[in-house]
Amino acid sequence: MKIAVIGGGASGLAAAIEAAEGGADVTVFEKNDRVGKKLLATGNGRCNLMNAGPPRYHHGARLAGALLQCFDETSIRAFFDACGLVIAREPEEDGRFYPACGQAAVVLDALRWRTEKAGVQIRTGNACQSIKRSAGRFLVTAGGETAAFDAVILACGSPAGGGTDAYHLASAFGHTLIPPTPALCPLECDMRTFRALKGIRVQAILSLYGNGHFIACAGGECLFTDSGLSGICAMQLAAQAQDALKEGLCEIHMDLSPLLDFCPRRHFYASKPADNHEKTALSWLEERRARIGDTHLLRGALSRPMAEMIEKNNRLADMARMLTAWPFRVTGVRAQSAQVIRGGVASDEVDEETLESCRMPGLYFCGEMLDVDGDCGGYNLMFAWASGLAAGQAAARRKE
Length: 400
Ligand SMILES: Cc1cc2nc3c(=O)[nH]c(=O)nc-3n(C[C@H](O)[C@H](O)[C@H](O)COP(=O)(O)OP(=O)(O)OC[C@H]3O[C@@H](n4cnc5c(N)ncnc54)[C@H](O)[C@@H]3O)c2cc1C
Fold this sequence. Notes:
Blueprint: E1 2-6, H1 10-21, E2 25-29, H2 37-41, E3 50-51, H3 61-70, H4 73-82, E4 96-97, H5 104-117, E5 121-123, E6 128-134, E7 137-142, E8 145-149, E9 151-154, H6 168-171, E10 177-184, E11 187-189, E12 201-210, E13 213-224, E14 228-230, H7 232-236, H8 238-247, E15 250-255, H9 277-292, H10 304-311, H11 316-325, E16 326-333, E17 340-345, E18 363-365, H12 379-397
Parallel strand pairs: 1-2, 1-9, 2-5, 9-18
Antiparallel strand pairs: 3-4, 6-7, 7-8, 10-17, 11-14, 11-16, 12-13, 12-15, 13-14, 15-16
Helix pairs in contact: 1-5, 1-12, 3-12, 9-11
Bound molecules: flavin-adenine dinucleotide.
Flavin-adenine dinucleotide is lined by residues 6-12, 29-32, 37-39, 41-43, 47-48, 127-128, 155-157, 160-161, 163-164, 166, 339-340, 367-369, 378-381, 384.
């Protein structure tokens, strides 16, 4: 079996290793001058490579759920174990797993070592321009040369994070493309009166509202920027914010309770806003005023610019409301900073076990090129590994 893997990113390298170890002659075509470039930027350079919790996917949830039953945390750990990578034994908050050394570069080194050991040929600086079917084989044209293969695995990723769009390689075989939109990216908000907050990081729970109706919420770190809100919990809401903006007014209500000592830790990752926080915040302020006095009410609890803004309210009830439902008007999303794309090759056009195309036998897909997007927290890489392992194993098992 001669197999071409198009794309040397997370899913492509996993697929190539599995296919080569399954006995196939494998060539990876990578358009960049080195493989796995995006991987180096993941998890702020630490690579949040999977999650211990139940699957949290949006588009393609059915495919991801089915696949992760076969290729779960244990199989992914075993795969990396054979690459020599040590993954931390215990997950970090919200179930996030990282390599024990905390370095994405080490994950890439481990994958490169095993691709080499498995005899995978890597052709960097070789963008695939076209794939055609001829006499029962695939003619792959990359870097100006054409070669024939028995099977092809498309692992081209998405335009997020400086990647490119190679969807034409799939549509040439009749696949449906779901229009790509940024899924995990910062929110643009009206920050005219909040400029002093730029650069401040807080633990918060953000609730998204469209025309006054609650849509979703997410908890975690939130960063104030020049143009809006960034950080894990803001990015988490970007896809739904885009839908809400199409309908009219879109707002974020920021609950700062995780910064205050009355909020139980389990509320940090809440799936719906806690309606008792405002009342609790009011009691908390009353107790603090009695003990500390007015002039230092929020100092020592919040960063100074934030404390000053909230203290501008005269009534404690208004302060409590601002502490737990501080409104920010969303004006858009920062698409150019997207980490993940929603959309791509329709996920119901591949076999759920093998990821083989339903349109063209011998053609396989893996990773973000498919219309599968997960939450922040390692879910997207987890799908990349799982789908790469499935496609690589299945392609190698295929009869010529
Ligand atoms: C800044 C950032 C941080 C992230 N952090 C995390 C995280 O911590 N945890 C997590 O789960 N997810 C994270 N993600 C998302 C995650 O990186 C992706 O979901 C994952 O890399 C997808 O793997 P992939 O193999 O599908 O695509 P990629 O890793 O993007 O690989 C695709 C490869 O295909 C190549 N290619 C494209 N077109 C062609 C062509 N025509 N010919 C040849 N080669 C081609 C590309 O150059 C690329 O190397 C992050 C993303 C970004 C941008």
